Amino acid sequence: MNDVIALGALSLSAIALSWLAYRTKTLGATVGTLKAERDALDAQHRRSASESTRIRDMRASLSDEMRATAVEELAASLAHEIAQPLSAIVLDGQACLRWLNHPHPPLHEIRECVERIVDDGHRTAETIQRIRARVRRAEPQPVRVALNEVLQELAPLMERETAACGTRLAFELAPALPDVLADPVLLQQLVMNLMQNALEAMRGIEDIEDHDSIEARAPTIIVSTETTASGDPAIALSDNGPGVADEDRERVFEPFFTTKTRAAGIGLSICRFVAQAHGGEIVVHGNAGHGATFTVTFPAAAPRARPAAT
């Protein structure tokens, strides 16, 4: 009986040892697997840390580049926007000096020049304030505006600028145009930028070899207004310059993109900013003959409320 019990105990011990050996082997494999996973996680962590560092460095570099680009765009925008009124101030000042050297200076002409200098000085100050507001991401200050009145107010300055460049200027303003809610100063900047862009584009007309077509293409800018089929008012400025290539019709509104040798490439991007800031859009298309037409469409303001009947 004792031999049977001893034999059973030995069998159980053998089974226990076999099970323990199996478990030890299994645990060893598990530990090996866990160690391999741990090493893989450590390697992944190191790669993640390295990737995070690389991304952080890229982000910092990109932030520096964006800040530099913003400063460059601001400087170019400021120079572009104030160049026109400052040029007009210089021209009027020179005219005043010439008249003052006359034995009998025309005082009424001098007075008109000085008044224009004052107006251009105020316009320059307002432009700088608007650029500062744009940098601070301030919203435009919209008021109810008639586009035709904005253009009529700008007409004397536009006529002086185009005459100085030997360019004919014409206005075709549609009657009964809906009002818009807009910042008048920003609208003036938009129109002046479009005009300056057209003047710069038409400087290339003289380089065309077909002299017969040059005589038929005296530099001309036409500024027009219309009411679209959807009832929204639009301003269009058309020139008879070389036009815009099909592949450039979207890129011309990007900052610093230009096809001209003496342009900063900032004017049309400002036009798009002004249009979009007022809920509008700007597009360009080629003319049937020569040149291009830039059209800016704005949402029509709600009709004025009629006074209640008494």
Polypeptide structure, described:
It contains 6 helices and 7 strands; from the N terminus they run ααβαββααββαββ. It has helices spanning about 1-100, 105-135, 145-165, 185-200, 210-215, 265-275, and strands at about 145, 170, 180, 220-225, 235-240, 280-285, 290-295. The strands form 2 sheets. It has a 5-stranded mixed beta sheet with strand order 2-4-5-7-6, covered by helices on one side. Helix 1 packs antiparallel against helix 2 (about 105-135).
Alpha-carbon distance between the termini? 126 Å
Q: Strand pairing plus helix content: what structural class?
A: alpha+beta
Count of runs of 4 or more consecutive helical residues: 6
What spatial order of strands do you see in the largest sheet?
A: 2-4-5-7-6
Beta-strand content:
5-15%
Q: Tell me about the largest β-sheet.
A: 5 strands, mixed
Task: Using the alpha-carbon principal axes, give the shape.
Answer: elongated
**Cα radius of gyration in angstroms:** 36 Å
N-to-C order of helices and strands: HHEHEEHHEEHEE
Residue ranges: pLDDT <50 for 5 or more in a row?
Answer: 2-10, 207-215
Q: For this entry, what is the oligomeric state of its chains?
A: single chain
Helix content: 55-70%
Instruction: Please tell me the overall pLDDT.
Output: 75
**Strands, total number:** 7
